[in-house]
Amino acid sequence: MTSSYRPDDLIATDIAEYLAQHQSKSLLRFITCGSVDDGKSTLIGRLLYDSKMIFEDQLAALEADSKKVGTQGQEIDFALLVDGLAAEREQGITIDVAYRFFATEKRKFIVADTPGHEQYTRNMVTGASTADLAVILIDARKGVLTQTRRHSYLAHLIGIRHIVLAVNKMDLVGYDQSVFDGIVADYREFATSIGIDDFTAIPISGFKGDNITALSANTPWFTGPALIEHLETVPVGVAGDTRPFRLPVQWVNRPNLDFRGFAGTIASGSVKPGDQVRILPSGRTSTVSRIVTFDGDLAQAGPDQSVTLTLADEVDCSRGDVIVAAAEPPEVADQFSATIVWMDQTPLLPGRSYWLKLGTQTVSVSIREPEHAIDVNTLAKLSAKTLNLNDIGVAEIATDRGIVFEPYEVNRDLGGFILIDKLTNATVAAGMIRRALRRAQNVHWQAVEITRDLHAAQKGQQPRLLWFTGLSGSGKSTIANLVEKKLHAMGKHSFLLDGDNVRHGLNRDLGFSDADRVENIRRVGELAKLMTDAGLIVLTAFISPFRAEREMVRSMIPDGEFFEIFIDTPLEEAERRDVKGLYKKARAGEIANFTGISSPYEAPETPEIRIDTSRITPEQAAELIIEHILGVWSPVL
């Protein structure tokens, strides 16, 4: 069909005037999502084509590519404008998130084309995180599918409040109104159940152009609006203007001794010189002196503006702090209930320590076993021990220190976070804080006068944590016991936490699943930290098979006081010894999740001390360790 839409003639006649008008237009960010092959890329390609946002050489290349690798015969395959990866063109699917810009006479747009395959759901979440509107596409021949429900649920969960239901490929069902009405009714039932109270349904054909930029004669029963008309008129950016002022500090600008400013992007509200502000989490207050930008000082600044604030007082403020309206501060807490979308092939390990990044704040976090997972088809709450790829669940999380936050539905910037694996630096999940836990508000640090340093001075020693790790049968307990005997003979105050002994009491409720092993080490780490705070030299003898948990414990202890001691004994030798007969039982299948046989052991990469038990005796190893921890270096034997 022929579109009635015309681009702005000023592009050809007065480019300066066109750019001036263009700069003042509002911006709408939206995503297209839905199931596989519902026509998302084709729709975006059509929008770019009809809005004349492609150059002549791009059009020529598109026509050539359509004949070569297109899926529409000899006609233009609009999806090729967006599917730029070779793998996408070969398979005819979208893999990565593709961002495209286009504009009409009334508004500018940034659209994210998100993949429909379930395995790329994490990419859809990425695209949705900054969107104001979601276009949910449905193939008129297939109706509402599981991925349609998943993407709709995620869009609503992430906070997108403007939903367009685009029933695509109407040309392939003869523009049948009954098909359209049936799909809309099915979707409405699901949408209502997840809290989507309103959406705009439009019958379209991305390939033919029906109801994209103008109403189509092929659907006389549909009275509008056309898709582009709706995108041009949907309201954007209203809520941010009425919320209290929030500025997450990205960096401290100190070009010389006479200037100190705090730079960041305003997340909500507005600010002007003279306003009273509060620095969180410290709580210190001050007054805004200047609002500095590259183009000069401002009299006022609002949401999404990048600015540098100078304050009247010399306050302690750094990256990760949040400057807020003094009279309307957000909360600070360290325990939360959160909704988590798991985006990694490796499942969540409850108790494991991850990095949590929320705005400019980065903290260490542990996650408890999920309260439940959510079935996106039925919305049933399912019992879950963990979260796997693309699972959505609710869990309690605890950060290692208080963070500034607001519930996600109030403020995306201070309520949305990502989780990062500490070893691989891979983003493993996205999450939304729903509320602080009441116990976080009721439990506070109590100041004490006998400090860690005083405890250590009383004992005349420097606290240490000697973390012995290695396979079962490697000799950890034997060597640790010899080290403690030597420390005791020297008059040092020490305590040995042995893996088997601890499981008789403190950790008697834990098994040997990966999650239980993580919790086992977390508890021992917390106990060891308390004992070093008392000024003791603490020795632990645990297999502790995972690097992540050993690094978690290291992060609890002051620098220079944690010593990872790798008792490096080959599996064959440890199995030959088999003092407790455990390897024999594991080989017979009588013990599940046995380290080295049916469960992995991640050897330390850079331990402070490595003991090669094939070269030295336990007595020699103990002597070497004593020399090292008392400050006299001896090479590894």
UniProtKB/TrEMBL annotation:
EC number: 2.7.7.4, 2.7.1.25
Acetylation listed as a keyword: no
GO MF annotations in UniProt: adenylylsulfate kinase activity; ATP binding; GTP binding; GTPase activity; sulfate adenylyltransferase (ATP) activity
Catalytic activity: sulfate + ATP + H(+) = adenosine 5'-phosphosulfate + diphosphate; adenosine 5'-phosphosulfate + ATP = 3'-phosphoadenylyl sulfate + ADP + H(+)
Residues that hold GTP according to the record: 34-41, 113-117, 168-171
Active site: 544
Residue stretches making up the Tr-type G domain: 25-245
Subunit (UniProt): Heterodimer composed of CysD, the smaller subunit, and CysNC.
Biological role stated in the UniProt entry: With CysD forms the ATP sulfurylase (ATPS) that catalyzes the adenylation of sulfate producing adenosine 5'-phosphosulfate (APS) and diphosphate, the first enzymatic step in sulfur assimilation pathway. APS synthesis involves the formation of a high-energy phosphoric-sulfuric acid anhydride bond driven by GTP hydrolysis by CysN coupled to ATP hydrolysis by CysD.
Name of the molecule in the record: Multifunctional fusion protein
